[in-house]
């Protein structure tokens, strides 16, 4: 899978569509400076860099670095927050290992495959 990347102008345009403020390429460079990232107008922005830049914006925007750098823009409309809440269907649903049939665990380092001191010296 190829990493999605956008340029600085597209990043600024996408930021402008999210809030009341209009962002320019210079604003993106200022965000990069605040994030201690070296950036110029011809730098491609990936999801990781986009997230670092978004972390500099206050108040936070309802979008993640991966969403803003994705090929699909604007992100799909959703009533859920960017990090959806987790709900479990029954209490104890996460206690899986205790009730799953597994191999008996062996103690010690029986599966390490090496004995201490068995390395050859390079003479």
Overall description:
The chain is about 30% helix and about 5% strand. The protein has a domain at about 5-65. The mean pLDDT is about 75. By secondary structure, it is mainly alpha-helical.
The helix-and-strand class reads mainly alpha
| Count of distinct strands | 2
Poorly predicted segments: none
If you compute it from the alpha carbons, what radius of gyration comes out, rounded to the nearest whole angstrom?
24 Å
Order of helices and strands: EHHEHHH
Query: Total number of helical segments?
Result: 5
**What topology, given as strand order, has the largest sheet?**
1-2
Based on Cα principal axes, name the global outline: extended
Sketch the major β-sheet: 2 strands, antiparallel
Mean pLDDT reading: 75
> What fraction, in percent, of the residue positions are helical?
25-40%
Beta-strand share of residues: under 5%
Distance between the terminal alpha carbons, to the nearest Å?
A: 45 Å
Region (Disordered): 68-123
Biased composition (Low complexity): 101-115
Brief summary of the model shown:
The chain is mainly alpha-helical.
List strands and helices in order, with pairings:
Layout: E1 6-7, H1 8-18, H2 25-34, E2 44-45, H3 47-54, H4 65-69, H5 96-99
Antiparallel strand pairs: 1-2
Helix pairs in contact: 1-2
Region (Disordered): 68-123
Biased composition (Low complexity): 101-115
What are its keywords?
mainly alpha, two-stranded antiparallel sheet, 5 helices
């Amino acid at each position: 899978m190829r990493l999605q990347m956008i340029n600085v102008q597209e990043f600024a345009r996408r930021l402008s569509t999210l809030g009341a403020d209009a962002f320019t390429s210079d604003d993106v460079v200022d965000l990069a400076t605040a994030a201690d990232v070296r950036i110029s107008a011809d730098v491609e922005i990936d999801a990781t860099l986009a997230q670092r830049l978004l972390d500099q914006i206050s108040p936070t925007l309802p979008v993640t670095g991966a969403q803003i750098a994705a090929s699909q823009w604007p992100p799909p409309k959703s009533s859920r927050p960017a990090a959806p809440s987790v709900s479990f269907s029954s209490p104890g649903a996460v206690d899986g290992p205790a009730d799953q049939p597994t191999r008996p665990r062996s103690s010690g380092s029986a599966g390490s495959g090496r004995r201490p001191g068995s390395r050859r010296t390079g003479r």
